[in-house]
Amino acid sequence: MANKPKTSARRDRGRRHPLATVALIMVGLLGTGGAYALFTTSASAETSTAAEAQVEDGSKLFAANCATCHGMNLQGTTQAPSLIGVGAAAVDFQVGTGRIPLAATGPQAEEKPVQFTQEQVAALAAYVASMGPGPGIPSEEYLGGEGDAAVGAELFRINCAMCHNVAGAGGALTEGKFAPPLGGVSATHIYEAMITGPQNMPVFNDANISPEDKANIITYLKYLDETPSVGGFGLGDLGPVSEGLFIWIFGLGAIVAITIWLTAKSN
Amino acid sequence: MANDHDGTNPRAGTTVEKYRDDNLPGPGTGVVASDAVENPGFEPFRARVSDLDPAKARANERRVSGLFFVSIIGSVFAIAAYIAFPIVDGDPGSIRLNNLLLGLGIALALLAIGIGAVHWSKSLMDGHDLVEQRHGTRGTEATRQKAIEVFELGNKESGFGRRTLIRNTLIGALVVSPLPAVVLFRDLAPAENPVPLLQQTMWKKGTRLTRDPSGTPIKASEVTLGSAFHVIPEGLEESEHKLEEKAKAAVLLMRLKPEDLHVSAGREDWNYDGIVAYSKICTHVGCPVALYEQQTHHLLCPCHQSQFDITQEAKVIFGPAKRPLPQLPITVDSEGYLVAQSDFTEPVGPSFWERKL
Amino acid sequence: MSTTTDERPTTTVEPSRGQRFTGWAANYVDERTSISGLVKELGRKIFPDHWSFMLGEVALYSFIVILLSGTFMTFFFQASMVPVLYDGSYVPLKGIEMSAAMASTLDLSFDIRGGLLMRQVHHWAALLFVASIGLHMLRIFFTGAFRKPREINWLIGFVLFVLAMAEGFTGYSLPDDLLSGNGLRIIDGLIKGVPIVGTWISYLLFGGEFPGEDVVGRFYTLHILLLPAILVAALGVHMLLLIINKHTQFAGPGRTNDNVVGVPIMPVFAAKAGGFFFIIFGVIVLIASLFQINPIWTYGPYDPSPVSAGTQPDWYIGFADGALRLVPPGWELELGPYTLSLNVFIPTLVLVLFLAVVALYPFVEAWITGDKREHHIADRPRNAPTRTAIGAAGVTFYAMLWAAASSDLIATHFRLTIEGVIHACQFLLIVGPIIAYVVTKRVCLALQKKDREIALHGYESGRIVRLPGGEYIEVHEQLDEYERWKLVSYEDYKPLMLRPNAQGKITAGERLRSRASSWFFEDRIAPVTKTEIEKSHGDH
Predict the structure, then answer these.
(1) Residue-wise pLDDT tens digits, B39-51
(2) How far is A51 from chain B (nearest CA, A)?
(3) Which of B97, B227, B308 to mutate to test the interface with A (most CBs of A within 10 A)?
(4) Three-state SS for B30?
(5) Closest C-alpha among A194, A59, A48, A198 to residue A126
(6) Alpha carbon of C215 to those of A164, B219, C224, C345: distances in Å?
(7) Which residues of C230-244 are buried (b: 16+ CB within 10 A; e: fewer)?
(8) Each residue of B130-160: pLDDT tens digit?
(9) Which chains have 3 or more CB–CB distances shorter than 8 Å to chain A?
């Protein structure tokens, strides 16, 4: 599941949210019945033995895979920041999209195949959350895409479009960094990105954009994802540049070919 | 002339002298070769299959009329698609389908007519090249002489050249007559002077910073480290010129660690505990500079890639902009909400001639 | 008509009903318009056949498509910036405040059957219109078809090009969406950068402070009334001069500077060109039905606060946007109390200068050559190496500006840094044209040498023959005289010799002209002469 290619994750979206849902179900089965939210804003109150076991698993995974850079006690090193207080959401986003562990030093961590299974990601998240309170895994009620798309679209244009493009096609930042395209990204990861501000993305805490408004933004992105571009093929949603290239290469190209046929002597 | 008609060598033997003799325009530095290769005249006509084989010609005929028939089908299809695939309210897919099928029908109808007509002309119409003679573009000497006479006569009969007072006053009158039209354009814009308008914004002492677009005020405690808030002044929604005010007053609010800020003298109290507010309007040509990188603290303009360093009071570090983004001095009011200390201390947005007045 | 009744059926065929009607109608019209003279004059005019001669027609036909689709849209579009609440069928904008212009464009797209198709036809046709004008201009330039007597028509064509860009930009601004609004904002910034009068021009254009509520209505008048009227008038003169000057043709057997060889307007060319109109129309509709263009609904209504990553103008304004991006930091001066925005004024000036050079090039070349003859044979680009090289340098300059306008997209798509792309473009903007000039000129001269070689000695047949003496040679196949003619017939110029004028003086102007002339014609490959051919044939 963890190594499932991105395309299939995209296909699954809408019915269920592969990463968050599966993680929660796993935890629920292992835990005391899963009636209360295991990964809400603070994991410090976690007392059940199953959850303790999960934190224990996470601790081992962390020591094996993360501690070299982030330090045995999450305190950070010269190579990587401290993880105390980053919360479960940050871990689920960074590890759950494959950005962490880093493959190589570059302008920024990039999405790639996920290195851990869902349970492992959940365990890591639980462990990091247990070491200091921070934003938790978002609650299911904001992720379903049942908000107001119009409100979401307006908020998206004001807060997100300058980096991610109005159609969510992504855009350039300074020195080789870029804001990734948003098509096919799961609602959980979008929510987590907003609340944690991964890498150079600013943080949009709940006082800035309320959870309901985050749900509206997710609703709009879901609408963009699920609605076909009404005018035909979208040419990558890159705007006038792709349109201009298209008309020069394919439009005029075809027409020049026609003029050659037109003026060639017939047999 | 006979040579011209079969296209052989009209230039052979022409020399510079010929141009002089015939009072023809000269070649300048062009070389008029006396030893040029001769034009071999037309190639023999190569007949097409449809010229030689009546069966092929008939096949082409069928093809052309077939294409015209296909065109009719395309048009009918387009009409049918218009009716059969209406736009269903709330279903964007229906618009896509309507656009696609209507378009394909019309495209087919047009392309089939076009291809049919071209095929007709290429395969069935007379395929011989024809020759038409060119004549010098300028009129013949006689015509030119006549034209000169007309002008001279006109001059003589009117006295245009002789009665200089009339001529000069007429020219003067014609030059002055469009001026009222220029004046008429003054009222394209209101009577007031634009310069003071450009030098002020809606911000004034005590105006609360509010979220864009909801207009709800922002508490300093809500602006956590790494946050970026898109800000409009309180009361913008009620203002008379909403967009014009917003085009000047839009602000980006960020919180940095206070020790990361390099504050210059006189601006020590412009930030509130590391919270800084900068005009969002680029000092280059006015795009919203809204791309905030929370780790590098750089602002990037997506239009022309100017970059501003927030830690150095929005100094330009790359791109065509010259001036730093103006900073809005802020503080908190008694309820803990962020408020402006005053308006910007300089005009926001792109530079203009009278900016420093 | 003195034939008797009984002879009639055998000698003349009774005209059919249709023929009688056509005859009557033709007579009716001619007696009132003397149109028969026009038909006689134009009906059998000859039009030479070459694919590149159709490019201007592409522009003409896409303009007709623009007029047709644009007229349809005027029935629905409201050129007003009065704020309204959108209540159409596009869900993510429901209840959002926007201008009536934006709302009516959305209604046209989402609630009128075929409305979106017409919008897309209009926009794609507009992109094609300017692109085909560009290609047409390049064809004219590289074949020297702007030479006497066509310099004036080149100027008119240039005016058409500028008008087309103006039409494009005003049209792009009409929907009042976020993309076009930010485009207008940039224009506002550009205008404000004009010294002394900039602030006032912007103020008058926008009817007050930016964005105001007037600019869409004003642009609408320009877009559908004033600019098209000038465009159609200039187009008419352009076509009229084309008829008067007749079309150029490429060198070929039987073709001379004094004739024009090709197909007659009636019927062959009419069928071809008429058919071509339908093909162009069809291709545009096909593109519009398959490919989305300018989805204003994702951009949303204009609001001065948001902006989208990848905000770019349509392609033909790209070179101007690129010029703005390539300015190095810090180009702004303060002259006492006044601010001089060189960072916007210099690029504007560079663009104006570039366009001025394009417009005036024919006159410059005519001055250098001093050639006052009429030229109706189009040059092969290689036979005018310096001109072709200048053209290549100009194209490179334009292309670098154009590329710079998509610096951010180049960066994200090729995993480069924006800064790197901008610096590369800045470097290539200066160095690229020089490289293009040198390389193109060398390539042209090499091709000319090759042509000369082939004309004299034929081409390599690939057939190896062993001579009686044991020597192996490759047989060179001679060209027939028709093929050879295409290679040897071209204009040749010598550098100007500096000679004193009648007063025995050498003027500074003449000195400059002489320098320009040797720059143009120093490296020349003279056309093959008759004697050379005879000599080379003697050798074999």
Answers:
(1) 888 888 888 888 8
(2) 30
(3) B227
(4) strand
(5) A59
(6) 29, 38, 14, 23
(7) bbeebbeebeebeee
(8) 999 998 888 889 999 999 999 999 999 999 9
(9) B, C
Interface contact B211, partner A, CB < 8 A:
yes
Topology alike, domains A41-137 and A138-227: yes
- pLDDT score at A63: 84
> Alpha-carbon distance A20 to A42, whole Å?
17
Q: Is B294–A158 a contact, with Cβ atoms under 8 angstroms apart?
A: no
Using CB atoms and an 8 Å cut-off, which of residues 75-94 of chain C contact chain B? 89-91
Taking an 8 Å cut-off on Cβ atoms, the answer to whether A173 and B48 are in contact is: no
The single-letter code of the amino acid at C101 is: A
Q: Residue B72 corresponds to which tokens in the numbers above?
A: 């009719």
Say how many CB pairs under 8 Å bridge B and C: 408
Chains that touch B (3 or more CB pairs under 8 A): A, C
- Cα distance between residue B139 and residue C137, in whole Å: 28
C121 three-class SS: helix
**Pure H helices in chain B:** 2-6, 16-21, 49-52, 54-84, 92-123, 141-158, 164-176, 179-184, 194-198, 242-249
Say whether A252 and C128 touch across the interface (CB within 8 A).
Answer: yes
Which residue matches tokens 């105390």? A84
H helical segments located in C370-461 = 385-404, 407-413, 418-457
Q: Structurally, what CATH architecture does the domain formed by A41-137 represent? A: Orthogonal Bundle (1.10)
Q: Could you tell me the residue ranges of all domains in chain A?
A: 41-137, 138-227
Backbone torsions φ then ψ of B64, nearest 5 degrees: -65, -50
Structural tokens at position C399: 């292309």
* A138-227 is classed CATH 3.10.20.30: no
pLDDT of amino acid A6: 42
- Which 8-state DSSP code applies to residue A131? T
What is the rounded CA–CA span in Å between residue B30 and residue C526?
11
Among C291, C307, C363, the residue to mutate for chain B (most B Cβ within 10 A):
C307
Region for residue B307 given its phi and psi (left: phi exceeds 0; alpha: psi -120 to 50; beta: otherwise): beta
Q: Which helix (H) or strand (E) segment is B298 a member of?
A: strand B298-300
The two most distant CA atoms of chain B are separated, in Å, by 103
Distance between A162 CA and the closest CA of chain C, angstroms: 4
Which chain A residue has its CA at the smallest distance from C86's CA?
Answer: A150
C-beta atoms of A228 and B92 within 8 A: yes
The four Cα atoms C419, C421, C426, C432 give a dihedral, to 10 degrees, of 160
Helix (H) or strand (E) holding A198: none
For residue C8, the distance in angstroms to the closest alpha carbon of chain B comes to 32
Nearest one of B310, B325, B299 to B256, comparing CA atoms = B310
Measured distance CA(C241)–CA(C361) in Å, rounded:
19
Average pLDDT along chain C: 92
C 396-425 → A contacts, CB under 8 A: 405-406, 408-409, 411-412, 415-420
DSSP H helices in C111-226:
115-142, 151-173, 178-192, 198-205, 215-221
Question: Looking at per-residue confidence, does B35 or A254 come out higher?
Answer: A254
* Of the partner residues C276, C316, C318, the one whose CB lies closest to the CB of residue A262: C276
User: pTM for the complete prediction?
Assistant: 0.91
- How does pLDDT run across C33-44, given as a tens digit for each residue? 999 999 998 888
Is B194 in Cβ contact with C253 (below 8 Å)?
Answer: no
Show Cβ contacts of residue C404 under 8 Å, excluding neighbours closer than 6 positions: C321, C322, C323, C325, C326, C421, C422, C425, C429
Q: Quick one: tokens of A115?
A: 């290195």
C185 CB burial (10 A radius; 0-12, 13-18, 19+): buried
Query: Looking at the complex, does the CB of residue C182 fall below 8 Å from at least one CB of chain A?
Result: no
- Give how far C468 is from chain B: nearest CA, Å: 35
Cβ C155 vs Cβ C145: under 8 Å: no
